[in-house]
Every structure is written in structure tokens, then in C-alpha cells.
Amino acid sequence: MIKKKYYLIKFFIISVALLVTDICVSQNVDFKSILKGFRLNDYNRVSKSLIKIDTLSISDYDKATWYYYYSDYQFRIDKHDIAFEYITKSKNLFVKLNKIKDAIDCNILAIGVLSHQNKLNTEIEKDLIRETESYALEKNDTLLLSKIYKRFGAKYIHLHNGEKAIFYFKKIIPIVKNLTDTIRVGYCYDNMATAFLYTKPIHLDSTIYYRNKATPYYIKYKDNLSLAYNYNNIGQYYKLKNQLKKSIDYFNKADSIPIRRNILKSKLLFYDNIADTYKKLKDYKNEALYLKKISKLKDSINDTQQNIAISDLDKKYKTAEKEKQLLESEAKRKQNLLYLITVSLLLILGTTIYILSYQNSKRKQKLAEQEKELETQKNLTLLKEQEITTINAMVDGQEKERKRIAEDLHDNLGSVLATLKLHFENLKINRTKRKINQETLFNKTENLIDEAYLKVRKIAHAKNAGVIANQGLLVAVQMMAEKISSAEKIQIDVIDFGLNKRLENNLEITVFRIIQELTTNIIKHANATNATINISLYDKNLNIIIEDDGKGFDVEKVDLKKGIGLSSIKTRIEHLEGTFKIDSTINKGSSIIIDIPNS
Fold first, then answer.
1. To pair with 499 at 20 to 30 A between CA atoms, which of 50, 198, 244, 485?
2. Residue 400, pLDDT above cutoff 90
């Protein structure tokens, strides 16, 4: 006779396939990895994914969902007592959250777990079935009704009432066809084949007919577990027909199918059928081989202990559930209170630290700005002092120069001009009286004129011998750089090339004023620590490059027409027929290039 255990397994397969889809709606925790593990029958992946989830920090709904998946995992690795414990936890939590549909889905998995146990009191199972059927009828849930009809069909097979079982399985087929769920049509055909074994009279031909109708569905959808049991049941058919060798072939086909769920109990069923068939064939050697395999498998399965554990656990759980809920509620309240106090203290502490840090930062920033302002004022004072000194020196130099020119004009040129006047008077007198040789007198007069010209030229050369207190452009710029650098806030280096000869006095003074103005701008605005003044004279062209490593600025945003300092410099350079170019990058310093023709 076909083992009853198989049909209960079949019911579980159909129910869980639907439940996995239903239970993963409206969840916050990502259970995708777990679901993928179930689809691939990769239970190692399922186990690792379940362990990764911290059940203490997730919502109650996600915790109930986690209980469900953990129960399903334990069921698939044949730990039925643990599976029943956690599916009961899942259902009770869903009920508490008023998630009745999810609780009903838990009933389906619980029925599947209980259906795997032999000689177990079925009162719990009956209660689950009644509750699920009432809900399905109330909600007009055809899919859920199909699950219940499967359960009724399996129940009537268990009671050996084949006609009733076939009646319920036939009701399922139009439902699953409307859902385009063709794999479940295969399940119905297989279950109907079993039901024909319990009709009066038994219809063996109908049994093999529906078995063969189910087989293509399992192959198409790669349902290896169902296909293995299908081959096993076909083997049972040929065994009843006394076609024992053909029966062995189908039993071996069933054993050869790779399955990932319910492995131990399935193998035990297949080996038991193979051993019994070899016994009928009087092949005692192979019978002994499979009996030995059966003995090893039975050592790994302890249904009796699991049944007792499930029954005891159900009683303990019902009596302790209220107390546990109260304890969990109180513990959660205390945990939330502690969390609130901790967060509040951390918030107050963090706010205090932030305020103190902010105030201290503002004080430091203010002090730094004051110190910077003082240094700027100090540098500006140095520049002003230098400018005043330079102006004073120029004024003194000019006064001395005027005095020297006056003395030269009086002492040298004056006597020559007086003598020259006498010679002109002699020429005038001698033109009529001719006492002196006229040519000799003209030569002396011409010599005096040449002497006066040379003295005037000498005075002019002496006047141009100095600039800026007789020191010259290069020396003046070097002195300015040295004085500014002595403050130790900015280092200014002066580099020169080709300035072996002096420039025209007015040009040197103008260039010095331009360099002085640009240096002042660096001190005021650039925040630089180093600057370079490069002055070179090449091929009648004076080139000046002033660079700094300061904060730079956006050249496009500078309006040279509005800026007084830069505008003045640009105007002076244009007056000298020169060019003025600014190159600056923010945070990378500035360069100013000036080219002035030196004719």
C-alpha cells in the first residue's frame, strides 16, 4: 500500500509555495536573500541570512516574519519540533498585531509541519483547519480555499474515503487553472491518483493514468521532490501489478532524483519500498543492502521525540504566553525609557560641547583677526615711514641740487658769460676802430661760447646723476623689501637683470611708486607669506613681475575702472605707453606683469 506520509508532504509543498509569496508583503527588513535561498533550496544561505538579522532591533511585524522564515527553515531540515515552536510564535505575534491574513498563512505552514508526524494527536491540526476554512469563506479567498480543499482531500485519503477525496481535488483544478498555476494542476492529478486507491472498488488503471498526467508538470517546472515521489508511486503501482522489475526501475529513478528538502524521510521511504520489492523477488542480497541503509537513516530520525516536544511545547506555550507578553512589554517599556534618557543626556552633552567649542572658536577667530589687523597696520606704518623718508630724502636732494646748480651757474657759467659779454663789446668797438685783429677776436669769442656750452652740459649731467635721494630705482626697491621683510610676516625677494645702467630720472620715480603701491596691496589683501619683485631691462624694454603666494582673487570680478589703486597704476603705465596684466587663481596667489618701453 502507498505510504500515507507522502500525501501530507505533497500538501505542504503546495501550501508553502503560496505562503512564501504572501508573507513577504509590507515588510521593512530586507528578506530577499532568505527568499532567494528558499527558491534555490540553498538552506546554508537561508541560515546565514537569518543569523545576520538582529531580531532585537526590528519591528514586531518583521520579527513575526522572521519567526515564520526560521520555522520554514527548520521544517525543511527536518527539525519539526523547532519549526512548530517558531510558527506558533509567528502566528501569535501576527494576531497581536491584527495581521490576520499573515496569521492564517502561519496556519498553513503549521498544518504542513504537523502532517509530517505519525501518531500525533490531531486536535491541534483540526483547529487550524477549521480556523483557516472559516476565514477563507468569509473573505471569499479562492486561493486559500484551494489550500483547504487540498487539506480535506488529504484528510479523506487518510480516512480511506477515495470518492470524497477526489471530489475535493476536482474542485481545486478550475481554481488553479484560473490562476494560471499549472504546476498545481499536476499536484491535483497526483493526489487524485492516490485517492483512486481508496475507492470502492479500487481503480488501479485510473491511478496510473493520473500519475502519468502529473509527471510532465513536474519535469517542466523542475519540481524534483514531487517528481521523485511521482516515480515512487508509479513504482508502487507496478509492484501491486506484480511487475516487480519495472517497479524497481521506478523506485531507483525516484532515488536518483536530486532533492533538497525532506531528504532523510524521503530516502527512508524509497529504500523501504526497494527492500520490500527485492524481498518479493527473493533477491536477499540487495534486500540486506537496503535494509542496512534504512537502519542508518533511522538513527538520524527521531519522530517520537519530536512529536512529544511539539505537544509539550504547545501546552507550555499557551500557559506561559500571557506572562511572557507582560514581561516583554515591561522590558520593552524599560528599554525605551532607558533609551530616551540616554539619548536626552547625549543630546544635552553634545549641545553643551558644541556651544563651548563654538564660543572658543569665535574667540580664537577674533584674536587671530585682531593680530592680523595689527600686523597689517605695522606693515603699512613701515611703508608710510619709508615713503616719508624717501620723500624727505628727495626734497633734501632737490634742495641740494638746486643750490649746487645755482653755485655752478654763478661761479662757473656766470664768469664765462661776463667775459663773453666783454668780448662782444670789444667786437662792437673794434668793428670801427680796428685796433685788434678781427679774426683773433672772433676766435676768442667762439672759444668762450664753447666753454659756456660745455659748462651748461656738465651741470645738466650732474643734475641727472641721482634719483630718489641719489640712490636709484634698484637700491630704493631693495631697501623697501628689506624693511618690510624685517617685520618677519612676509618675505620679499628682489631679483634684477640688465640694470647695469641707470634709467631716466622721472621713469625711475614713477616705476618705484608703482612697485610700492602693488607691494602695499599684497600686504593689505593677499595674506601672503612670500613675494618676489623681478625687475629686468632687456632690448630697450623694462619688465617688472610681482608675484605672491597669497589667497588670490577672481580677476574677472575686478573692475579696473572702479578700483582707485589699480586704476591709478594702470593709468600711469598707459601714460608710459606700457602694458599691465594680472594673473591670479583663488588660493594659489597672484602675478602682475608690467612691460614699459625704455627709449
1. 485
2. no
Residue type, 197: L
Neighbours of 81 (CB within 10 A): 19
C-alpha cell at 430: 673794434
Reported for 101-107, long-range contacts at CB under 8 A and 24+ positions apart, including other chains, are 101/22, 102/22, 102/23, 102/64, 102/65, 102/68, 104/131, 104/132, 104/135, 104/136, 104/144, 105/19, 105/22, 105/23, 105/68, 106/68, 107/131, 107/132
Rounded Cα distance between 193 and 211, Å, is 6
CA 451 from chain center: how many Å?
A: 92
* Angle at which helices 5-23 and 224-240 cross, to 10°: 160
Asked if pLDDT for residue 392 goes beyond 80, the answer is no
| Fold that domain 473-597 belongs to in CATH | Heat Shock Protein 90 (3.30.565)
DSSP string, 74-110: HHHTT-HHHHHHHHHHHHHHHHHTT-HHHHHHHHHHH
Helices (H) and strands (E) in the chain, counts: 21, 5
- Summarize pLDDT for 129-187 with one digit per residue, the tens: 888 888 888 888 888 888 778 877 877 787 788 998 899 899 888 888 777 667 888 88
Distance between CA 8 and CA 79 in Å, rounded?
A: 16
Residue (of 529, 533, 532) closest to 488 by Cα position: 529
Q: 222-299: what fold?
A: 1.25.40
Q: Classify each residue of 494-529 as buried b or exposed e, where b means 16 or more C-beta atoms within 10 Å of its C-beta.
A: beeeeeeeebebebbbbbbebbbebbbbbbeebebe
Instruction: Determine contact, residues 76/13, Cβ cutoff 8 Å.
Output: no
**Which pLDDT does position 136 carry in this prediction?**
84
Collapse the DSSP code of 149 into the 3-class scheme (helix H, G, I; strand E, B; otherwise coil) and give the result: helix
What does DSSP assign to residue 27? -
Side chain identity at 243, as an amino acid letter?
Q
Residue 201: is the preceding peptide bond cis (ω within 30°)?
yes
> CA-to-CA distance for 434 and 182, rounded, in angstroms?
154
Query: For residue 242, is it left (φ>0), alpha (ψ between -120 and 50) or beta?
Result: left
Beta strands at 491-497 and 530-538: parallel, antiparallel or unpaired: parallel
What DSSP string describes 273-291? HHHHHHHHTT-HHHHHHHH
Contact 62, 28 (CB under 8 A): yes
Question: b/e map of 359-388 (b: 16 or more CB within 10 Å)?
Answer: eeeeeeeeeeeeeeeeeeeebeebbeebee
pLDDT digits (tens, 9 = 90+) for 431-440: 666 666 777 7
Rounded to the nearest angstrom, the gap between the alpha carbon of residue 192 and the centroid of all alpha carbons in its chain is 57
Q: What is the pLDDT of residue 464?
A: 47
DSSP output for 466-534: -STTTT-HHHHHHHHHHHHHTTSS-EEEEEEESTTSPPPHHHHHHHHHHHHHHHHHIIIII--SEEEEE
